[in-house]
Amino acid sequence: MNVLVLLVPVALFLGLLGLLGFLWNLRAGQYDDLDGAASRILFDDLPRKEPRP
Length: 53
What we know:
The protein has helices spanning 2-27, 34-40. By secondary structure, it is mainly alpha-helical.
């Protein structure tokens, strides 16, 4: 039972840390364009033009 005194605060701290990380990413706009990334994978990149010597 003594180990619970250590594990419960550690678990609460890690949960709070994960929540803060999620909110930080939400404010930074990480989840703004979910459909764009899903459709971009379907298109090939444009071919690069090689520089002339």
